[in-house]
Design goal:
mainly alpha; two-stranded antiparallel ribbon; 5 helices
């Protein structure tokens, strides 16, 4: 193939795959699936559900940080975990004071117990906690707990300055 110096090829953008979501009501039609495959479609996902499926108990790792299963609820109901709320509040204090995550982690390890998995707090653990802080931060910052926590922190800071 020869090209003239004056002719320029227009670059062709790669085509993007087309996706189509289909809700199936009733039995699966295998012929419809085969027809779609002949048309060039491929199955990307299958989601199963059933009526009356027993609900499972939440594992502790699945419970959002700052909450715990209500005793006797088999993990179906959650309540605030006061110790973890204190950790969230302490992390928020550090973040609002523009402290480095390493400093916040050090303070958490001095004042509180370790993470749920028994590891000490570090920058990575705090970074992974940020989405949860973003989720609960507005509620915590407007709570009575936050006001009491800040008052307690100020009193502690004044006491340490006076010493």
């Amino acid at each position: 193939m020869t090209h003239d110096e004056d002719s320029q090829e227009t670059p062709v953008a790669p085509s993007r795959p087309t996706a189509q979501r289909e809700v199936v009501k009733g039995p699966v039609d295998l012929e419809a699936i085969a027809r779609r495959q002949r048309e060039g479609w491929r199955i990307r996902s299958i989601e199963w559900e059933r009526e009356g499926a027993p609900s499972r108990v939440l594992a502790r790792a699945e419970v959002p940080y700052g909450l715990r299963p209500v005793e006797g609820s088999l993990g179906k109901e959650l309540e605030d975990d006061p110790a973890e709320i204190e950790v969230l509040l302490e992390a928020l204090v550090g973040i609002t004071q523009d402290r480095p995550l390493s400093e916040i982690a050090e303070r958490l390890n001095q004042r509180f117990s370790y993470q749920r998995n028994g590891s000490p707090w570090d920058q990575v653990a705090l970074f992974e906690l940020l989405p949860r802080l973003i989720e609960v931060g507005p509620d915590l910052l407007s709570s009575e707990q936050w006001a009491a926590f800040r008052k307690q922190r100020r009193a502690g800071a004044l006491h340490s300055v006076a010493s």
